[in-house]
Write a structure and sequence with these properties.
Structural class of chain A: mainly alpha
Distance between the termini of chain B: 53 Å
Largest sheet of chain B: none
Mean pLDDT of chain A: 72
CATH architecture of the largest domain in chain B: Orthogonal Bundle
Radius of gyration of chain A: 22 Å
CATH superfamily of the largest domain in chain B: RNA polymerase sigma factor, region 2, helix turn helix motif
Number of domains of chain A: 2
Oligomer: heterodimer
């Protein structure tokens, strides 16, 4: 037999159930779902890396270089691939070589540096094609968005590491790169066609998230000069593949 | 397809399967975050980070464990990190007094105001009491599940839930005279 106090508590507990009515804002819900489905992610591996043995012999960079060169040479189009742009047939080869670079990175910090460098290349590609008013701008935007998502994932992982000088330096480099990207994306957004606006606005959102994560990592002081970028055009939803050339590389389904 | 199958497929990189798991659990994760942080915007940030981390960690997920428990574990780690970093001067009252993210029809706004009032009260409980109140009485999780998520003995959770309820009722001003 319960006491009156217990009964009152029980009734109070049952009244709390009405607070379950809190719901995820629908726009946020669909935007997050779309980004989870589309964003390329480097999954944690359960199995030991094929190249783990080489760590102790400091061979990873050498192995990586050899593999990248072999990949390019085997296709007989190394030079063409290296200078290719999104939308070019040889671009897939260039991306494959970049994936090898990422896979063979020493650790999370060097992986972050690698993806920062690669996302910088995608931004240059995008700026180049935008300047040429190329029809491949939408593809380049998708490729940049995919690179920015890899950037964000890498920053998240590094920010979760224990504070250290190396980690903080890497995050500072990422933060600076992200600020630079945001400024250039903002400038690009005013010049890109409507077809590329979804992607560019999403890319700006991702870079803002990257900037926040790199500045707010535990044990690290954020930049006092964090940029505040207003979208050039209102975002009308999550990025969608442009329809030309399929989904960006790194997304399942990309040849 | 059951949750274990979805989790197995998501672990091997099937993004659609992960999307299905997201659909199943995003509301519960958001509610947990909502009642453990200061603002609606923070709740969105935590929810987003939970699923991003879960996606990366999928290969390490043990499919026999309920997927929601896996998500709650990630969520509580994220919330704990955020609370540790948060500036002490930013109070929950401030967050309620400036509900910049409150919008929508009147009914929804009123319900959300009630929820924010509860959130402010929950914030005054100890972290473990907060978790017990949210998981037991808002999310209807069993004592066993909560013990697993919080890594505490079931007896601790059982004892704690009554003290947490008493404290919360006082904070909400519902004590009978």
């Amino acid at each position: 037999m319960s006491t009156p106090e217990e009964r009152e508590l029980s009734e109070f507990a049952s009244r709390l159930a009405r607070y379950r009515a809190v719901r995820v804002p629908p726009e946020f819900r669909s935007r997050l779902r779309a980004s989870l489905i589309a964003a390329p992610v480097v999954l944690d591996s359960r199995r030991p890396s094929l190249f783990r043995w080489s760590r102790s012999f400091a061979l990873r960079p050498i192995v990586a270089s050899v593999l990248v060169l072999a990949l390019l040479a085997m296709a007989g189009g190394g030079v063409a691939a290296a200078s290719s742009l999104p939308g070019d047939p040889a671009f897939a080869l260039k991306r494959a070589a970049e994936d090898v670079e990422v896979a063979l990175a020493w650790d999370d910090i060097s992986r972050l540096d690698t993806v920062v460098m690669q996302s910088g290349r995608r931004l240059v590609d995008l700026e180049t094609l935008a300047a040429r008013r190329s029809s491949a701008v939408a593809v380049a935007t998708d490729e940049y968005l995919a690179a920015a998502s890899r950037f964000e994932t890498a920053v998240t992982r590094v920010a979760a590491l224990a504070a250290s000088a190396a980690r903080d330096a890497a995050l500072a480099r990422a933060e600076a790169a992200s600020a630079d990207h945001l400024a250039r994306l903002q400038a690009l957004a005013t010049r890109l066609p409507d077809a590329a606006q979804h992607g560019i606005q999403r890319a700006i959102e991702v870079q803002q998230a990257v900037h926040g994560k790199s500045a707010d990592a535990p044990g690290r002081r954020g930049s006092p000069l964090a940029p505040t970028i207003a979208p050039a055009r209102p975002s009308t939803g999550p990025a969608t593949p442009s329809g030309r050339g399929g989904p960006p590389s790194g997304v399942p389904g990309r040849p | 397809m059951d949750e274990q199958d979805l989790a197995r497929r998501a672990s091997s990189g099937d993004r659609r399967a992960f999307g299905a798991l997201y659909d199943l659990h995003v509301e519960a994760v958001y509610r947990y975050a909502f009642y453990r942080v200061r603002t609606d915007a923070e709740a969105e940030d935590v929810t987003s980070e939970v699923f991003q981390r879960a996606l990366v960690a999928m290969p390490r997920y043990e499919p026999r464990r309920p997927f929601l428990a896996f998500l709650y574990t990630i969520a509580r780690n994220i919330v704990t990190d955020r609370l540790r970093r948060q500036r002490p001067e930013a109070s929950f009252e401030d967050a309620i007094a400036h509900p910049s993210d409150a919008a929508g029809p009147e009914e929804r706004a009123a319900a959300m105001d009630d929820a924010r009032h509860l959130r402010a009260a929950i914030a005054r409980l100890t972290p473990l009491q907060q978790e017990v109140v949210i998981l037991r009485f808002l999310e209807d999780r069993s004592i066993k599940e909560i013990a697993e998520i919080t890594a505490k003995p079931e007896s601790t959770i059982r004892g704690l839930q009554m003290r947490a309820l008493v404290a919360l009722r006082e904070l909400l001003g519902e004590v009978s005279s």
